[in-house]
Amino acid sequence: MAERGAVLEGLRAYRMIAGMWVRSGMTYRVSFVFTLFGNLVMTGMDFVGILLMFSQVDSLAGWSLPEVAFLYAASVTSFGLAHLAAGSMPQLGSRIRDGSFDVLLVRPVPVLAQVGGDRFSLRRLGRIAQGGAVLGWALVSADIDWTVSKVLLVPLMVVSGAAIFVAVFVAGAAFQIYAQDAAEVQNAFTYGGTTMLQYPPAVFGKDLVRGVTFVLPLAFVNWVPAAHVLGRPYPLALPGWVAFASPLVAAGCCALAGLAWRTGLRSYRSVGS
Fold first, then answer.
1. Calpha distance 218→195 (Å, rounded)
2. I want to staple 78 with a disulfide (CB 3.0 to 4.6 A). Which of 24, 36, 162, 201 is the partner?
3. Separation of alpha carbons 36 and 44, rounded Å
4. Residue 232 Ramachandran class (φ > 0 left, ψ -120 to 50 alpha, else beta)
5. What is the pLDDT of residues 184-229, one digit of tens each?
6. pLDDT tens digits, residue range 41-81?
7. Which pTM does this prediction carry?
Protein backbone atom coordinates (compact mmCIF):
# COMPACT_ATOMS: atom_id res chain seq x y z
CA MET A 1 0.00 0.00 0.00
CA ALA A 2 2.84 2.38 0.83
CA GLU A 3 4.44 1.72 -2.57
CA ARG A 4 1.14 2.35 -4.32
CA GLY A 5 0.66 5.59 -2.40
CA ALA A 6 4.13 6.77 -3.41
CA VAL A 7 3.38 6.04 -7.07
CA LEU A 8 0.09 7.95 -6.93
CA GLU A 9 1.79 10.85 -5.18
CA GLY A 10 4.46 10.91 -7.86
CA LEU A 11 1.90 10.90 -10.68
CA ARG A 12 -0.02 13.71 -9.02
CA ALA A 13 3.14 15.78 -8.62
CA TYR A 14 4.17 15.07 -12.20
CA ARG A 15 0.76 16.18 -13.47
CA MET A 16 0.96 19.44 -11.52
CA ILE A 17 4.52 20.22 -12.69
CA ALA A 18 3.71 19.38 -16.30
CA GLY A 19 0.55 21.47 -16.13
CA MET A 20 2.55 24.45 -14.88
CA TRP A 21 4.92 24.20 -17.85
CA VAL A 22 2.02 23.78 -20.28
CA ARG A 23 0.38 26.97 -18.98
CA SER A 24 3.70 28.76 -19.28
CA GLY A 25 4.25 27.51 -22.83
CA MET A 26 0.76 28.52 -23.96
CA THR A 27 1.26 32.13 -22.87
CA TYR A 28 2.57 32.96 -26.36
CA ARG A 29 0.29 30.89 -28.55
CA VAL A 30 1.54 32.04 -31.93
CA SER A 31 5.07 31.12 -30.92
CA PHE A 32 3.79 27.76 -29.69
CA VAL A 33 2.07 27.02 -33.02
CA PHE A 34 5.18 27.90 -35.05
CA THR A 35 7.41 25.86 -32.73
CA LEU A 36 5.06 22.88 -32.94
CA PHE A 37 4.97 23.10 -36.74
CA GLY A 38 8.76 23.42 -36.90
CA ASN A 39 9.15 20.37 -34.68
CA LEU A 40 6.79 18.40 -36.92
CA VAL A 41 8.73 19.38 -40.06
CA MET A 42 12.14 18.68 -38.56
CA THR A 43 11.19 15.25 -37.26
CA GLY A 44 9.74 14.42 -40.69
CA MET A 45 13.14 14.84 -42.36
CA ASP A 46 14.10 11.27 -41.43
CA PHE A 47 11.13 9.92 -43.36
CA VAL A 48 11.96 12.17 -46.29
CA GLY A 49 15.37 10.48 -46.31
CA ILE A 50 13.67 7.08 -46.48
CA LEU A 51 11.48 8.27 -49.37
CA LEU A 52 14.55 9.51 -51.23
CA MET A 53 16.26 6.18 -50.67
CA PHE A 54 13.28 4.28 -52.07
CA SER A 55 13.25 6.55 -55.11
CA GLN A 56 16.45 4.73 -56.09
CA VAL A 57 15.61 1.17 -54.92
CA ASP A 58 12.51 -1.01 -54.90
CA SER A 59 13.16 -2.64 -51.54
CA LEU A 60 15.48 -2.53 -48.53
CA ALA A 61 16.70 -5.97 -47.41
CA GLY A 62 13.52 -7.32 -49.02
CA TRP A 63 11.21 -4.85 -47.25
CA SER A 64 8.92 -2.60 -49.29
CA LEU A 65 8.42 1.12 -48.66
CA PRO A 66 5.11 0.67 -46.73
CA GLU A 67 6.72 -2.01 -44.54
CA VAL A 68 9.73 0.19 -43.72
CA ALA A 69 7.32 3.07 -43.15
CA PHE A 70 5.50 0.87 -40.64
CA LEU A 71 8.76 0.27 -38.75
CA TYR A 72 9.60 3.96 -38.94
CA ALA A 73 6.20 5.13 -37.72
CA ALA A 74 5.99 2.64 -34.86
CA SER A 75 9.43 3.66 -33.64
CA VAL A 76 8.86 7.40 -34.00
CA THR A 77 5.40 7.36 -32.40
CA SER A 78 6.55 5.28 -29.43
CA PHE A 79 9.61 7.44 -28.95
CA GLY A 80 7.50 10.58 -29.33
CA LEU A 81 5.19 9.50 -26.51
CA ALA A 82 8.18 8.69 -24.29
CA HIS A 83 9.89 11.96 -25.21
CA LEU A 84 6.73 13.89 -24.36
CA ALA A 85 6.58 12.25 -20.93
CA ALA A 86 10.27 12.10 -20.04
CA GLY A 87 12.16 14.20 -22.57
CA SER A 88 13.78 16.35 -19.87
CA MET A 89 15.65 13.41 -18.31
CA PRO A 90 18.87 13.98 -20.32
CA GLN A 91 19.20 17.43 -18.69
CA LEU A 92 19.79 15.85 -15.28
CA GLY A 93 23.56 15.91 -15.73
CA SER A 94 23.63 19.70 -16.09
CA ARG A 95 21.46 20.02 -12.96
CA ILE A 96 23.94 17.92 -11.01
CA ARG A 97 26.88 19.98 -12.26
CA ASP A 98 25.39 23.36 -11.38
CA GLY A 99 24.05 22.15 -8.03
CA SER A 100 20.36 22.72 -8.79
CA PHE A 101 19.67 18.98 -8.41
CA ASP A 102 20.18 19.41 -4.65
CA VAL A 103 17.17 21.74 -4.60
CA LEU A 104 14.95 18.94 -5.91
CA LEU A 105 16.09 16.63 -3.11
CA VAL A 106 14.83 18.88 -0.31
CA ARG A 107 11.36 19.42 -1.77
CA PRO A 108 8.53 17.25 -0.39
CA VAL A 109 7.87 15.85 -3.88
CA PRO A 110 9.24 12.65 -5.49
CA VAL A 111 12.47 13.56 -7.29
CA LEU A 112 11.68 11.45 -10.35
CA ALA A 113 8.40 13.33 -10.84
CA GLN A 114 10.25 16.64 -10.66
CA VAL A 115 12.93 15.59 -13.15
CA GLY A 116 10.42 14.02 -15.55
CA GLY A 117 7.97 16.92 -15.47
CA ASP A 118 10.61 19.64 -15.69
CA ARG A 119 10.20 21.80 -18.81
CA PHE A 120 7.34 19.64 -20.09
CA SER A 121 6.57 20.88 -23.59
CA LEU A 122 3.60 20.25 -25.85
CA ARG A 123 5.73 21.14 -28.88
CA ARG A 124 6.94 17.53 -28.66
CA LEU A 125 3.51 16.54 -29.96
CA GLY A 126 4.85 17.32 -33.44
CA ARG A 127 6.87 14.10 -33.46
CA ILE A 128 3.85 12.07 -32.35
CA ALA A 129 1.57 13.65 -34.96
CA GLN A 130 4.07 13.05 -37.74
CA GLY A 131 4.71 9.46 -36.70
CA GLY A 132 0.99 8.80 -36.35
CA ALA A 133 0.31 10.14 -39.85
CA VAL A 134 2.98 7.89 -41.38
CA LEU A 135 1.67 4.94 -39.35
CA GLY A 136 -1.83 5.46 -40.72
CA TRP A 137 -0.51 5.57 -44.29
CA ALA A 138 1.63 2.47 -43.74
CA LEU A 139 -1.27 0.46 -42.32
CA VAL A 140 -3.37 1.28 -45.37
CA SER A 141 -0.61 0.79 -47.95
CA ALA A 142 1.14 -2.33 -46.64
CA ASP A 143 -0.08 -5.73 -47.77
CA ILE A 144 -1.29 -6.99 -44.37
CA ASP A 145 -3.53 -9.99 -43.87
CA TRP A 146 -5.51 -8.53 -40.99
CA THR A 147 -6.65 -10.64 -38.05
CA VAL A 148 -8.03 -9.69 -34.65
CA SER A 149 -4.65 -10.32 -33.03
CA LYS A 150 -2.90 -8.01 -35.50
CA VAL A 151 -5.44 -5.24 -35.00
CA LEU A 152 -4.95 -5.42 -31.22
CA LEU A 153 -1.19 -5.71 -31.49
CA VAL A 154 -0.65 -2.37 -33.27
CA PRO A 155 -1.75 -0.06 -30.39
CA LEU A 156 -0.26 -2.48 -27.86
CA MET A 157 3.07 -2.26 -29.70
CA VAL A 158 3.07 1.55 -29.67
CA VAL A 159 2.19 1.86 -25.97
CA SER A 160 4.64 -0.86 -24.91
CA GLY A 161 7.36 0.71 -27.05
CA ALA A 162 6.75 4.07 -25.36
CA ALA A 163 7.10 2.41 -21.93
CA ILE A 164 10.39 0.78 -23.01
CA PHE A 165 11.77 4.14 -24.14
CA VAL A 166 10.63 5.79 -20.88
CA ALA A 167 12.55 3.08 -19.01
CA VAL A 168 15.64 3.88 -21.08
CA PHE A 169 15.24 7.59 -20.26
CA VAL A 170 14.97 6.83 -16.53
CA ALA A 171 17.89 4.37 -16.56
CA GLY A 172 19.97 6.94 -18.44
CA ALA A 173 19.13 9.57 -15.83
CA ALA A 174 20.19 7.14 -13.09
CA PHE A 175 23.50 6.65 -14.89
CA GLN A 176 24.00 10.41 -15.01
CA ILE A 177 23.87 10.52 -11.21
CA TYR A 178 27.09 8.49 -11.26
CA ALA A 179 28.66 10.12 -14.32
CA GLN A 180 27.33 13.64 -13.51
CA ASP A 181 27.26 14.53 -17.21
CA ALA A 182 26.50 11.78 -19.69
CA ALA A 183 23.68 13.22 -21.77
CA GLU A 184 25.32 12.17 -25.03
CA VAL A 185 25.66 8.59 -23.80
CA GLN A 186 21.98 8.59 -22.91
CA ASN A 187 21.05 10.10 -26.28
CA ALA A 188 22.93 7.31 -28.04
CA PHE A 189 20.45 4.80 -26.65
CA THR A 190 17.31 6.97 -27.00
CA TYR A 191 17.65 9.00 -30.19
CA GLY A 192 20.11 6.48 -31.61
CA GLY A 193 17.82 3.61 -30.70
CA THR A 194 14.76 5.05 -32.40
CA THR A 195 16.79 5.80 -35.54
CA MET A 196 18.10 2.23 -35.70
CA LEU A 197 14.61 0.76 -35.28
CA GLN A 198 13.38 2.65 -38.34
CA TYR A 199 15.13 0.12 -40.59
CA PRO A 200 14.69 -3.67 -40.97
CA PRO A 201 16.77 -5.84 -38.62
CA ALA A 202 18.28 -7.63 -41.63
CA VAL A 203 20.23 -4.43 -42.39
CA PHE A 204 22.27 -4.84 -39.20
CA GLY A 205 24.75 -7.45 -38.02
CA LYS A 206 23.47 -10.37 -35.95
CA ASP A 207 25.51 -9.37 -32.91
CA LEU A 208 23.85 -5.96 -32.83
CA VAL A 209 20.40 -7.54 -33.28
CA ARG A 210 21.14 -9.93 -30.41
CA GLY A 211 22.20 -7.02 -28.24
CA VAL A 212 19.02 -5.02 -28.80
CA THR A 213 16.91 -8.15 -28.30
CA PHE A 214 18.41 -9.80 -25.22
CA VAL A 215 20.48 -7.06 -23.52
CA LEU A 216 18.71 -3.75 -24.18
CA PRO A 217 15.43 -5.07 -25.63
CA LEU A 218 14.63 -2.25 -28.05
CA ALA A 219 13.68 -4.89 -30.62
CA PHE A 220 10.39 -5.29 -28.75
CA VAL A 221 9.49 -1.68 -29.58
CA ASN A 222 8.71 -2.61 -33.19
CA TRP A 223 10.94 -5.26 -34.82
CA VAL A 224 9.41 -8.26 -33.04
CA PRO A 225 5.70 -7.27 -33.03
CA ALA A 226 5.99 -5.82 -36.55
CA ALA A 227 7.20 -9.21 -37.80
CA HIS A 228 3.86 -10.68 -36.76
CA VAL A 229 1.77 -7.84 -38.19
CA LEU A 230 3.61 -7.80 -41.53
CA GLY A 231 4.07 -11.56 -41.79
CA ARG A 232 7.85 -11.20 -41.84
CA PRO A 233 10.46 -13.62 -40.39
CA TYR A 234 11.13 -12.96 -36.73
CA PRO A 235 14.54 -11.53 -35.81
CA LEU A 236 16.96 -14.29 -34.78
CA ALA A 237 14.28 -16.89 -35.64
CA LEU A 238 12.44 -16.18 -32.38
CA PRO A 239 9.25 -18.16 -31.65
CA GLY A 240 5.95 -16.63 -32.75
CA TRP A 241 4.58 -16.00 -29.26
CA VAL A 242 7.24 -13.35 -28.51
CA ALA A 243 5.35 -10.92 -30.73
CA PHE A 244 2.95 -10.47 -27.81
CA ALA A 245 5.67 -10.20 -25.16
CA SER A 246 6.24 -6.45 -25.54
CA PRO A 247 4.06 -5.52 -22.51
CA LEU A 248 5.98 -7.97 -20.30
CA VAL A 249 9.30 -6.68 -21.62
CA ALA A 250 8.16 -3.10 -21.01
CA ALA A 251 7.10 -3.93 -17.44
CA GLY A 252 10.44 -5.60 -16.78
CA CYS A 253 12.36 -2.65 -18.22
CA CYS A 254 10.38 -0.16 -16.11
CA ALA A 255 10.98 -2.24 -12.96
CA LEU A 256 14.74 -2.40 -13.62
CA ALA A 257 14.86 1.32 -14.47
CA GLY A 258 13.05 2.13 -11.22
CA LEU A 259 15.53 0.02 -9.28
CA ALA A 260 18.45 1.74 -11.02
CA TRP A 261 16.95 5.15 -10.22
CA ARG A 262 16.48 4.38 -6.52
CA THR A 263 19.98 2.94 -6.29
CA GLY A 264 21.48 5.98 -7.99
CA LEU A 265 19.53 8.39 -5.82
CA ARG A 266 20.68 6.68 -2.62
CA SER A 267 24.30 6.85 -3.74
CA TYR A 268 24.17 10.54 -4.74
CA ARG A 269 26.64 12.88 -3.10
CA SER A 270 26.19 16.61 -3.49
CA VAL A 271 28.70 18.45 -5.65
CA GLY A 272 28.86 21.08 -2.93
CA SER A 273 27.82 23.99 -5.11
1. 11
2. 162
3. 12
4. beta
5. 788 888 989 999 999 999 999 999 999 999 999 999 999 999 999 9
6. 888 888 999 999 999 999 999 999 999 999 999 999 999 99
7. 0.92
